[in-house]
Amino acid sequence: MAGESLESVVLDLRGLPGDRWFAVEDAHGHFASGKSTRRFRRRDPIFNYAAATHDGHVFVRRADRTWAVGDPALDAELSSAMGLAVRVTAEGEVSHQDAGQVSLVGTASLAWCENQLGIDADPRRLRANILVDTAEAFVEETWVGQFVSVGQARLRVIERIERCRMVDLAQDGVATTTPFLKALGGARDVRLGVYADVVTPGRLAVGDPVAPLGFAAPTRG
Questions:
Q1: What does the alpha-carbon distance between residue 216 and residue 196 come to, in Å, rounded to a whole number?
Q2: 62, 112, 166, 212: which could form a disulfide with 34 (CB 3.0–4.6 Å)?
Q3: How far apart are CA 104 and CA 134, in angstroms?
Q4: Are 161 and 191 in contact (CB under 8 A)?
Q5: Are 148 and 213 spatial neighbours (Cβ–Cβ below 8 Å)?
Q6: What is the CB-side half-sphere exposure of residue 107 using CA atoms within 13 A?
Q7: For 102-215, which CATH superfamily applies?
Q8: What residues contact 61, with CB distance under 8 A and at least 6 apart?
Q9: Is the pTM above the cut of 0.85?
Q10: Domain locations in the chain?
Q11: Are 96 and 21 in contact, with CB atoms under 8 Å apart?
Q12: Could you give the CA distance from residue 46 to residue 103 in angstroms, rounded to a whole number?
């Protein structure tokens, strides 16, 4: 689902509160997504919805209708849209997260993609948690293995992000205009942005400084 734009947030040891707390799950335990893998099933109608957190609760919106997670009417709506029985479930033994708790990408990296690859590199196509104003393309990749301060929080950058067909989908108010994934495959090994884990929780806000603090061990990626 589409996310929400935040002016500030307090990271906890799992990441952003509300982020991927829930998933739309079918009877076989597969989560609705834009791709099919061992744990995901491609269900493109999911992109007609948006999710947001308010006062510790998660809500789902489509057009002018809103449902609270836990409302049986939401499960009925999603089941109708997807053509099979699904329900919104809380994270359990199978994590809803990918390789890291937080995803991050720099503005200079996106600008490079637009200028050098001729693609529409709107950050919403990447579904990143944190957009960093950077002057050097792909500088965030040099942070892999390092601690990075973001506002009051401290992260450990763990690996570059390998992209999938999600970046080519119309979603979150962004239409599909150019083939992002194919261009990344030829020039960037299909990788853009980085994953990080939260080491020290804290508040971060738009305009806060971001700074690498040195290398950490062990590392991944």
A1: 12
A2: 166
A3: 12
A4: yes
A5: yes
A6: 6
A7: PK beta-barrel domain-like (2.40.33.20)
A8: 49, 50, 51, 52, 67
A9: yes
A10: 21-90, 102-215
A11: yes
A12: 21
